[in-house]
């Protein structure tokens, strides 16, 4: 089973950028559908972006055009580049890995099986 460790969160002013990393061990990220999720206080955890083992990507409308998901199979690491951050992006961010996916809303979505620990992202206005 893949083990995921998240790093890169922090505090930034609106308009700034952060890059999150999700380092995997125990298995190769290339076998999995990988995704980033976030959970704001009082809200449900939401999927914001995913990447499939065959390269497809999907983004929530709230982050489309600002966030970019990528993975480096040689480093066995998933990344989330977050630009033009807004206060509403403030949340705990999690990465996840899954061996299955579902089609809904016009795109693929990962079905998470393993989770990394969260990292806090705080965006001030």
Element-by-element helix/strand order: EEEEEEEEEEEEE
The percent range for strand residues is: over 45%
Describe the sheet with the most strands.
7 strands, mixed
Tally of extended strands? 13
Q: Which geometry do the CA atoms define? A: globular
List low-pLDDT spans. none
Rg, nearest Å: 13 Å
Separation of the first and last Cα atoms? 40 Å
- Pairing-aware structural class of the strands and helices? mainly beta
Mean pLDDT across all amino acids = 96
Tally of helical runs: 0
Share of helix, binned: under 10%
Task: Walk me through this protein's architecture.
- The protein has 125 residues and is an all-beta fold.
- 0% of the residues lie in helices and 57% in strands.
- The chain is built from no helices and 13 strands.
- The protein has strands spanning 3-7, 10-13, 18-25, 33-39, 46-51, 57-59, 67-72, 77-82, 91-98, 100-104, 107-111, 114-115, 119-124.
- Strands 2, 4, 5, 6, 9, 12 and 13 form a seven-stranded mixed beta sheet that branches. Strands 1-3-8-7 form a four-stranded antiparallel beta sheet, with no helix packed on it.
- A hairpin with a 6-residue loop joins strand 4 (33-39) and strand 5.
- It starts with a strand and ends with a strand.
